[in-house]
Every structure is written in structure tokens, then in C-alpha cells.
## 1
Amino acid sequence: MADITLPIPGRPYVIVTATREKSVLDLSRLEIEDLYKLHGALLFRGFPTTLDQFGAFTGQFCATSVFNEGPDRRMLDGERNIQSVDAGSDPFQLHPELSREPWKPDVCFFCCQQPPTSGGATTICDGTELVRELPAGLRDALAKRKLMYIQAAPPHVLEFWLGTSEPTDQQLRNPPANCPYVFRRAPTGQAIRIFIRPVFHTPMFATDPAFGNFLLFARFQNSISNFPVLDDGKPVPEPWLQAIKAVGDRLSAPVEWQAGDLLMLDNTRFMHGRTAIQNADERLIASYFGYLKFAVPNPDEPADPIWRRETFRPPARIAP
């Protein structure tokens, strides 16, 4: 095995540094799994990881993957569902990947094909540590609450999940067992889709509760206050959001990219973001969002979800 440097305060990820290995594929899959389950964030450095090697590496751990329909991504390898990360130069708020959807992936892989000259670090934050560092009163209040993600259900979404673009009220009330949404009819007659998740959840390979949802990105990146909302239908209070953001910002640690770096991140435990980039054209980071072969069943998912059976391409997203 390569040299292993365990996490320290201020750097919550393991660093796996190449020694005699010629490729990241020379590493022991089982040893990587053990490190991943224990620490949740692994940075592989000193391996000249090509796009082909990146695809082969992710295939060792994932049974399926999800296509991220974000508009600012490029497809780098269609056969292996490898995309670029979001383009642009602005900083990104902390978020788990695709936490705005019920099919949030288990794991994120990022591979630096070309690092920027300045800026563009990927920031990561351990959601379990964030919960521990919250003010006690806020932590106790949030532990009792759930988040509702409420969006319109346009015809193409209804067709995808219900098999018809014009469902009856009975069909809305009785979706298939593997559908991740609850459907309702709004007073206007429009169909809406809803999924619910706890504010704090238990990560796949940890026992302490974690914070990892769309709240920070929605409020501080997209300036949206009503997606998601609390289980009583009200927006999350601004003082709560500001307190959560302050702790997340304090705990965030940068990964300053070097060419060939590969980051493996537990998306059920860690959030990630990025710092501002001076020249976005210089930065090329490949990404892959997958569902693990060794996944622990998620009680919030429906039985036999489609994203764990095949590479999943969801119906086109409609902004909330």
C-alpha cells in the first residue's frame, strides 16, 4: 500500500501518497474500502491518474451512477458517465451532491485533469463534526425536525414516474412502490411532488448524526428560502441558517488541486464546495457520482430504487 497520512484537525481527509505504485489501480481495493468506511474522505496524490484510470477506479466501488443534469457540466466519458464539475469561477457553498433530489448518491469522486493557477480549491466539511459544533440549543431543535422538498410535477416528470402525463387523483395518491415522491394536487389543480428527509441523518458508515442537505446551497448560493422548508411548511429561520453556515465555514478544509489528484468523498457524511477561481478555463476536474457495491440500505429510499439498478438519468430538472 502507498503511504497513508491520517486526518488531523483542520484536514479531515486521509492522504494516500504513491510510493512504488505506477497507477491508482495498483492499490488494494479492500484496503481503500476500509479507509473510506472509517474516515469518509480520501485524497490520492502522486498517481498520474488519467481519465481512463479514473473510470476504472470508480468502477471498482460502484454498481451504478447518476447523471448530473446541471447545465454547466461537460460529458467527458459518456460510456462511464464521467462529467466535468460545474463551470464558472464563482465560489460554491457547501452541499452534498444532488441533495436537492431523493436519489442523492452515496459517493463522489473527483479527479484533477488540469489544476488552476490560482484559486479553485475544493472545500470539504464533515457533516458529523458540524452537528457536534453547533450551539446546543440549535442542535437540539434541529434534531427533531425534517425538511420537505416541494416542487411542481410537470408532465414529463409525471410520465416518468407514473406512466402518464395527466394522472387522476387516485394515481397521484398511489405511485409505484419504487417512486421516491409523494404526489399531491395543489389548490390550483397543478400536481406537486414531495420528498422528506430529516435535518440530521445517520451517514452510511458512521453512527453520529450528520448535517448534509440542500439548505446552505439553496439559501446562500441560489438565494432561495422555501426549498426545502421545515416539516410545518415554514422556511428555516434565518438565524438558524446563519449559525449553521458559520460553523460550516469554520470547519471547511481546502483541497488544493495538483494534476492527477483523485478525491473519494462519502456523500452521506461530507459536504463540499469550492473557492473562487481566477481563470476557470484553466481548471478541469472530472466527476463521477455513484452508488456503492457495498452500500448499507438507506431507510429513506424506496424499495428497489431505479438508481441502484442501472445508471440513472432523471427527467430534466425544473428549477424550484
## 2
Amino acid sequence: MFVETEEIMEMDQIKVTLVGATGRMGSAVLTSVAKIPKMSVIARINHQSSTPYREQLISECDVVIDFSSPATTAWIAEMCAGYKKPLVTGTTGRTDEQKAVLVDLSSIVPVVAATNFSTGVNVLFWLTRKTAEILGPDFDLEVVEMHHRLKKDAPSGTATKFAEILADVRGLQIKEALRHGRSGIVGERTKGEIGVHSIRGGDVVGDHTVIFAGMGERVELTHKASSREAFANGALFAARWIIGRKPGLYTMEDVLGLAT
């Protein structure tokens, strides 16, 4: 259940162009949007669509939702900017250059870029920051994530987001602080590292745990997703929220009113 913290644009019918409709998240969006009044997917884009056809599909919609690939997201974002269409994207695994494309184009159109659209996960982002601030530097920081065997990128975008939050609170440089698993004689754990561990197997939708390990006690914050419906509903909520917003790069925390 989403709490509408800001007024959402009311329209007779919100028309969505969905990019990556044949993927797991795209399929979940199609299932969820059928349950939402006054909102429909009018067009679907995949890698086989011709360029002129893609442009037509984007020009006729009110908002674009993208769950494709990093390379596809880059040119979809450029097309959205050209037609002044807001973009909601959940694609992960982007390079720094591809992330920069979104930042540049967000000066032209509003963009919601999120690693995870689940309400619960975004609450956990907020709780992770607050917990890290309260517990202080005496607790060791570890992030563990598990996904299905077909996931291509590691760590997950959500796990990376947790690590970025922890690094920000501690004042650490994320690239220097990250430890992706450990093997061999690595020496004692330092206070300036954040462990991130990726597990793959079966059909797990997405499990994430942030561990704060102190002397004599341990705090663990965990979120487990049992279906993709929560992610799809969040993306559709963000699509409603972003219509009529000023250009800018927004997160799901902005959408839910959790941004600090």
C-alpha cells in the first residue's frame, strides 16, 4: 500500500510505453497495470522494434517505464528527452558513462531511476542510513544478497545501493571500501571496509540483508521479496507520480517521501 505524500497528476487515462516488456519485470508490470484504473500500456518496445516505430511509440505516451538493458536505457532516455516524456527506469548494471547519460538528460525531463521499486526495500534504505548513524563506527558492515540463477549482474543494484548508503554515512570512498567476498589469507577485517556478498540459485526473486556486527551483539535488517508484484506496483506508482514533475533525477525515496 502506497502513501501518497504528494499530489499525483490526475488524467483521464495514463498511457504507458513499456520497454523490456518480454522480460521478467516487464511481464510483472503488464500483470499489475491491468488492475489499475485509468492506466494502461499502449505500446511495448523490445530490441527487435525498428527505430522509427520506437520513436512513434514513445511520442504517443504519457510516460515511459523501462526494464531493459543498460545500453537500451541510454538511447531510450535520449528519445524521452527528445519528445519531453518522463522516464521511470529500473535497469541495473549501468556503467558510470551510462549513469552520466541519465544525469545529463534529467535536466530536460524528469527521471525516476531506482535499483528497487519495492516500498519495503526503500523503507529499508532509510532504516539502513538511520541505523548506521545511530550505531556508529564500532559496528562492522556487511551486505548479503541472493537472487535467482538467471540474474546476470552482481552484486545486485539494491545491494550496491545499501553499500553506497553505508559508505556515505561512514565518509568512505565506496570503490576503496568494497570487499566482494573474501578468499585466502586476507588479514584481519578493517573498520574501513564494507563486505558485499552475492549468492545465486534457484528462482529467488530477491533477498537482501544488511548486517551491523558489533562486539557481543549484531543487528540485521532483512527484506525478502516473494514475487515481482511489489516491484511492478512501485514502478507504476512512480510513473503516476512523475507526470508533471519538474526535470530532475529522482529516486524511489523521493516518490515515497522518504528522501532526507
